[in-house]
Amino acid sequence: MAETAPETAPLPPRRRGRPPKVAAPGGGAARLGRPPLMADPRAEILRQAAQLFAQKGYVESSLNELAAAMNYSKGAIYNYFSSKQEIYDAIIIFTLTGLYETAAKAVNEADPPVERLRQFMMAHARFLADNYDCFVTMLVGFSGMANSGLKDDALALRDAHEGLLRRILQDGVADGSFREVSAAMTGRAVLSLLSWMVRWFKPDGGKSAEEVAQEYHDLLVRGLMA
Amino acid sequence: MAETAPETAPLPPRRRGRPPKVAAPGGGAARLGRPPLMADPRAEILRQAAQLFAQKGYVESSLNELAAAMNYSKGAIYNYFSSKQEIYDAIIIFTLTGLYETAAKAVNEADPPVERLRQFMMAHARFLADNYDCFVTMLVGFSGMANSGLKDDALALRDAHEGLLRRILQDGVADGSFREVSAAMTGRAVLSLLSWMVRWFKPDGGKSAEEVAQEYHDLLVRGLMA
Known about the structure:
Two copies of one chain form a homodimer. The first copy, chain A, has helices at residues 28-31, 41-56, 63-70, 74-78, 84-106, 113-130, 132-139, 148-174, 183-195, 197-200, 209-222. Chain A is mainly α. In chain A, helix 5 (84-106) crosses helix 7 and helix 6 packs parallel to helix 9. The longest helix of chain A is centred in the last third of the chain and has 27 residues, at 148-174. The N and C termini of chain A lie far apart (42 Å). The model of chain A is unreliable at 1-36 (pLDDT under 50).
């Protein structure tokens, strides 16, 4: 699974049990005079929708605006998604899938826990920076997901990501490199540091996401005391 | 200033340069057959509005709903606020004022930095738990504030709160009790841990906010290494 992890650009989540849709020939995009150049229109819709939701908020965004921003017809979007809500849900699933898979791929089980913790934190921060609009959209809350099956998927993905982190922390306690800390509490702290980046980090200015993650890792591992 | 800090219940922010409005006799509340029993109707409006915004989102909430929830007429609310946006802005100012003043009051300058950091974190977490709906409302973003003067006030309050924290960290570095960490980066980490509580902490269940803050303080101060 980890081999297919997206690292930089948004990729569409796969629906379970059915293959992803492909661009319908003669769809709305063609009608607007543009050939379907995009390699993955579904992914592109998610990317542009996340940008719109992040800027205007979910409630105040419309499929008309999304279509206009993409130079699509609204019908072209309906080839891939039946509603704004379905796009929102797909963004959440994409983001959590990519986050987990990116972290799982980055963590090398052969390395000591302190290094694996660094790998996890760097990968999480990098994926957040690379998919910033998706994280802003997600911050609005996946209590907002309409499809309860997808909501269960989202919770499972979140748990998988947190589980990966907790195992690193438990391994560190077990091999004596970490103090006897609670993996639940410490994992929560690590994810809080990284998650709050969506509120202040700017992908295009100042420190890179990796530099931030590196500093947080150093702080968590070494602590404040002289 | 710190003597007037609200510690548990929401209090209304004072407008600069003019006294707070008081209940107008014969206002809408009276028309609905209820005497103006509330000690501070303005504070009560903010409290109930924050609850509504936290549950339904700002965009999807209406003053009609707010009035109905309070058993007020809409006119009674207009005695205190001219719009939903003005209520939103007032919630942000109230929350940031209370947060800063509560922390400033809790920090005892005579104590060593490690203890002052604990006091700051406990006070922040407690104020968040006591005003949870206000923090959920604020999470939507004070980019959403309409009054640019109040937005400047909000940024100044946020900076004051962060400044208080940074001074504690700088004092700790200066007196040799903390390592040579960056006060900006470490302050950001402390506030990230506390701020993200709005996404997972439940005021009525499990650990108290103070217990969480205590655990985070211990983790930050001692670090992970055995």
